[in-house]
Amino acid sequence: MFPNQFAYHRPSTLEEAVGLLAADPDAKVLAGGHSLLPAMKLRLAAPGALVDLASIEGLRGISADGAVTIGAMTTYNQLVDSDELRARLPVVAEVAAGVGDPQVRSLGTLGGSLAHNDPAADFTALMLALGADVTAVGSQGERTIPADEFFLDILTTALGPDEILTAVRIPVPAGRVGMAYQKHEHPASGYAVVGIAAVLALGDDGTCRSARVAVTGCAPTATRAAAAEAALVGQALTPETIAAAAQAAPGGLEITGDLYASAEYRSHLVTVVGRRVLEQAAARARG
Ligand SMILES: Cc1cc2nc3c(=O)[nH]c(=O)nc-3n(C[C@H](O)[C@H](O)[C@H](O)COP(=O)(O)OP(=O)(O)OC[C@H]3O[C@@H](n4cnc5c(N)ncnc54)[C@H](O)[C@@H]3O)c2cc1C
């Protein structure tokens, strides 16, 4: 299939890009194109104009101070290859290595993945678990949106129509913290049928001081698994408490089914993937 006709803009500044979006409600941002272009070819999306971010300086790259900041146009391969991430937040590089295939990883971007908010995307859950903040720039200026308030519904985020996601800022937690992500992949696409990210912090007495657990692939948008988090905090992370938290994980989630996996099967997968990822995060926290 061919897409509908559209105008193509390649601005060289963020201001110009925001101006183009503000002037044309039918315009859409183009990043790596790995979600938008297939949707256009299937005529599921028909924007009147594309605003390509590829020539805008400053949207690519990874820097670190107390936190790690990743430019929206940074590709999955750049995440995989980053020494900065391997040293401070290796789970980000690990997750990037498991996205799609070599073509997707070479062009797909972190910003595109978060802005698209596919219900099965890997990085939406990871950013929720890591407690990241998203920076957006639009005609009203710049604002910071916590990941917890960013992912609203299927393919819908808190971004306004003329806002561009410019960067993601991820805190680097101190102390005994373990981070992990695991997914049960769809065999054809590699997308998560169920994917779960966990960030567990241990207190001085070895019990779980804080837990952030987020699930993707089984609801309209990635969501925190509040029941699993509540079951972990204050507990020693034994095989029994981890199994109990994994068993509690589906509670409160709006789990949906499709042709590939029923809601009941996905709910079961949440408990299985949940136990595995919590065990991995706990082992990493213990060091
Ligand atoms: C075969 C295949 C397998 C895949 N497997 C996986 C997988 O295993 N896991 C996974 O998570 N994803 C997977 N993906 C999706 C892939 O990660 C996409 O690259 C990603 O979802 C979108 O990023 P992009 O840079 O390509 O964005 P685009 O396709 O260019 O844009 C996607 C949407 O986000 C908007 N957008 C993009 N960037 C911005 C921005 N900076 N500010 C505001 N809006 C923006 C666009 O307007 C568009 O609506 C797969 C895709 C394919 C084709």
The shape, in one word, is: globular
Extract low-pLDDT stretches. none
Gap between N and C termini, in Å? 51 Å
Number of strands: 14
Based on secondary structure, the structural category is alpha+beta
Helix content: 25-40%
Oligomerization category of the chains in this entry: single chain
Placed side by side, the strands forming the largest sheet appear as 4-5-10-6-7
**Main CATH class of the largest domain:** Alpha Beta
Distinct small molecules bound, one entry per kind:
flavin-adenine dinucleotide
- Determine the mean pLDDT: 97
The whole-angstrom Rg is 19 Å
The domain count comes to 3
Number of helices: 12
| Major β-sheet annotation | 5 strands, antiparallel
The helix/strand order is EHEHEEEHHHHHHEEHEEEEEEEHHH
User: Which fold does the CATH topology of the largest domain refer to?
Assistant: Uridine Diphospho-n-acetylenolpyruvylglucosamine Reductase, domain 3
CATH architecture of the largest domain: 2-Layer Sandwich
Strand content: 25-35%
Question: What's this, in brief?
Answer:
This protein has 287 residues and is of the alpha+beta class.
Describe the protein in words.
The protein has 287 residues and is of the alpha+beta class. The protein has three domains: 7-52, 2-Layer Sandwich (Uridine Diphospho-n-acetylenolpyruvylglucosamine Reductase, domain 2), CATH 3.30.43.10; 62-171, 2-Layer Sandwich (Uridine Diphospho-n-acetylenolpyruvylglucosamine Reductase, domain 3), CATH 3.30.465; 177-286, CO dehydrogenase flavoprotein, C-terminal domain (Enolase-like, domain 1, 2-Layer Sandwich). It is built from twelve helices and 14 strands. It has helices at residues 14-23, 36-41, 76-80, 83-88, 90-97, 102-107, 110-116, 122-130, 147-150, 226-232, 239-248, 263-286; strands at residues 7-9, 27-30, 49-52, 62-64, 67-71, 133-138, 141-146, 151-153, 156-157, 164-171, 177-185, 192-202, 208-216, 223-224. Strands 4-5-10-6-7 form a five-stranded antiparallel beta sheet. It has a four-stranded antiparallel beta sheet with strand order 11-12-13-14, sandwiched between helices. Strand 2 (27-30), helix 2 and strand 3 form a beta-alpha-beta unit. Helix 10 (226-232) packs antiparallel against helix 11 (239-248) and helix 11 runs antiparallel to helix 12. The longest helix has 24 residues, at 263-286. The protein starts with 6 loop residues before the first strand and ends with a helix. The mean pLDDT is 97. Flavin-adenine dinucleotide (FAD) binds at residues 28-36, 38, 53, 72, 99-101, 104, 108-109, 111-113, 115-116, 118, 121-123, 159, 164-165, 189-191.
